[in-house]
Design goal:
single chain; 10 strands; six-stranded mixed sheet; mainly beta
Amino acid sequence: QVQLVESGGGLVQPGGSLRLSCAASGTIFTTYAMAWYRQAPGERRELVASVTPGGSTNYADSVKDRFTISRDNAQKTLYLQMNSLKPDDTAVYYCNGRTPTLPWGQGTQVTVSS
């Protein structure tokens, strides 16, 4: 069974940067389009960015030109480089398939505040 473990979150000031990681167990990672999602308090979970097995990417308008999604298929790890962070980026961040059918991990908290 696939397990997803997110890490790299924390408290950062506006304008700062963080790099999130998602370690995936199991063999299907290399064939899945993967994605990062986030959920702010009282809000629905939303798609932030996605990447195909070949590396093609898509981003939500709210993070375009600030966030970069990437993947290392050999290490079965998904990344999210977040730059120019804003308070509105505060949320718990999760990884999953682009179609989120995998078991959700615990997520990693990102707090952007001065």
